[in-house]
């Protein structure tokens, strides 16, 4: 292993540890995906480092990125947010493996990727708008009534909705809803009763 790769390896391990453990796991508590991100990152780093040591063309390296990008995490329990972490872990492995000869650029891009995911997936931003597929036990023919029903059921401000399916036999509707939860109600402030003066 060359000196450049020896320096790039701890940078890559530190970056993926921060991304998968300090950011993703602490916010979403999914050990399986955090482990998958680490394994993917280290595997891509090893392959790209081997390609760099064998002086493989840069086109082949980007071809590898394209092939790995085709692989999608196909599961109903995996959101687009998880896919974003997947591509970030993949990019970190390639950047640190291929860019080992330019440590300043390598470190700068790694910091940029991790910082971007930290800000983009911050709870203050991510929790403002939510998405849900709702199955209603009634059919609304008026959009205004459907809008009001969704806000009542979700206890939220509905920003956008789209009817996916309407079953007139079972009297059900499937609606794709994007909404913003209403702030939690604040209880009335406790009144302080002045103490009676004793003579």
From TrEMBL:
Keyword terms, alphabetized: Membrane, Transmembrane, Transmembrane helix
Keyword Transferase listed: no
Protein's recorded name: DUF4956 domain-containing protein
Entry-linked InterPro entries: DUF4956
Lineage of the organism: Bacteria, Bacillati, Actinomycetota, Actinomycetes, Glycomycetales
Keyword match Transmembrane helix: yes
Transmembrane segments: 6-25, 32-50, 56-71, 83-98
């Amino acid at each position: 292993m060359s000196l450049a790769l020896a320096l790039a390896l701890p940078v890559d391990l530190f970056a993926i540890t921060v991304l998968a453990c300090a950011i993703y796991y602490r916010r979403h508590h999914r050990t399986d995906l955090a482990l998958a991100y680490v394994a993917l990152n280290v595997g891509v780093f090893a392959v790209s480092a081997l390609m760099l040591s064998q002086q493989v063309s840069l086109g082949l390296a980007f071809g590898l990125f394209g092939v790995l990008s085709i692989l999608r995490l196909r599961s109903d329990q995996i959101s687009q947010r998880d896919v974003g972490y997947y591509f970030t872990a993949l990019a970190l492995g390639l950047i640190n493996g291929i860019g080992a000869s330019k440590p300043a650029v390598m470190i700068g891009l790694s910091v940029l990727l991790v910082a971007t995911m930290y800000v983009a997936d911050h709870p203050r931003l991510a929790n403002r708008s939510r998405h849900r597929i709702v199955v209603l036990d009634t059919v609304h023919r008026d959009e205004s009534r459907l809008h009001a029903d969704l806000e009542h059921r979700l206890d939220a401000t509905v920003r956008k909705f789209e009817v996916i399916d309407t079953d007139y036999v079972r009297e059900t509707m499937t609606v794709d809803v994007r909404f913003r939860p209403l702030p939690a109600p604040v209880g009335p402030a406790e009144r302080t009763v002045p103490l009676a003066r004793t003579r």
